[in-house]
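User: Predict the complex with glutamine.
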Amino acid sequence: MEIGVLALQGAFAEHEKMLDKLSVNHFEIRSKKDLDRHFDGLILPGGESTVMKRLLLDLEMLAPIRDRIASGLPVFGTCAGLILLAKEVEQDGHCFATMDISVKRNAYGRQLGSFNTEEICGDLGRVPMTFIRAPYITEVYGKAETLAIVDGRIVAARQGKQLVTAFHPELTEDTGLHRYFLDSI
Ligand code: GLN
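Assistant: Here is the predicted structure with glutamine placed in the model:
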């Protein structure tokens, strides 16, 4: 199995470390030509979604990646990665728009934007969750389903082969969500 990690900006190296820990092959996707290489799944890291979207457009990578996701490429988006996959982004345009979720960026405000907690996530039981200037999901509809709720707010969801978390599992020691993603491939 080979995983592509979008490495235009943000916390991609932490995902790569997680994949190393799980002994999974991976490579960085930095330009359009990297998309020619075979990969079985894609990770969209945390970072700044507006910057990533700008770079995806400038590098002509947005449409080809969106088409692959729409055709069933398994994808795991964390934080900014979640924002990139949402069909509606409050006060901002959407990017790939492949998931039936609406999101609010920087939804916890500046002070409360970064915190750690632990909550149940799907069938994984309790997982540690690190939030950094996090979004949350304001609505899950259509084919998407909720996986985790923290303080009444939806923070993880899936839809077919698409998995998203508002938090950063790659910044914890817990490999559960990465294994969950890899198992789905
Ligand atoms: N606030 C960032 C955004 O809107 C997301 C933060 C993160 O990925 N840690 O893109």
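Residues 12-21 form the longest helix (10 residues).
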